[in-house]
Amino acid sequence: EAQVTQNPRYLITVTGKKLTVTCSQNMNHEYMSWYRQDPGLGLRQIYYSMNVEVTDKGDVPEGYKVSRKEKRNFPLILESPSPNQTSLYFCASSSLMNTEAFFGQGTRLTVV
Amino acid sequence: LAKTTQPISMDSYEGQEVNITCSHNNIATNDYITWYQQFPSQGPRFIIQGYKTKVTNEVASLFIPADRKSSTLSLPRVSLSDTAVYYCLVALTLGAGSYQLTFGKGTKLSVIP
Q1: Which of A4, A40, A99 sits opposite B99 (nearest CB)?
Q2: What is the tens place of the pLDDT at every residue in A71-91?
Q3: Which of B:13-52 have CB within 8 Å of A?
C-alpha cells in the first residue's frame, strides 16, 4: 500500500530535549516536505527536499533541521524544542512534475 | 508567490452541489491550481488539479477561466462525509520539475442533514 509513515504519532517532551520525528515513504518519490499546522494559521511549510542530499527552507524553518540521506526517509529534527513548537506536524511526498502530494497521519507534538 | 483567497466557511445541505471559489490574481504562467481536502487530525488529501478550462474526476470538477485568476471547485451532491476543510493552492513551479505547495487557511465546509 502506498503510504507516508510518520513516527511517533504523539509526543510530549520538555524544553531543550532534542527529538527526531521520522518520515518514510514507499512510493519512490523525489519530493518530500514537512508542514506544521496551528489553529488559525493553517498549514505552513517548514522544509522541503527535491532529492537525496538536496534540502531547502520553507516558510517557517527556524528551530528545525532536516536531512535527506536516503530517498525514502526525511526526518525532522528539533535540536532544542521550545513551547512555541507545540503543533501538529505533517510529512508529505510527491513525484516530480506532479502536484498530488501524499501526507502522513501527522505527529502531535507538545513541548512543555 | 501566488496568494490565494477563499471563503473562510460555507454551509450546505446534503444532496446539494457546492461551489467553492478561490482567487489567485498573481498566478504565474507555469503554476498549477490544486485543491486538497482535510478532515480533522488527518493529513490533507489531494482532490483535483488543473491548468485551465475544466477538469473533472470521480470526486469533483474544477473550473478555471481563461485569465486563470480564479478557480471554482464543484462538489456534486454533497453528503455529511464531505464536511471538511478545502484548500485551494497554487503550486509554485520549482526547479527540476518539482512544485512547492503553499496552503492558505482553507474553506471549512459544513454539510447539514
Answers
A1: A99
A2: 999 999 999 999 999 999 999
A3: 32, 34, 41-46, 49
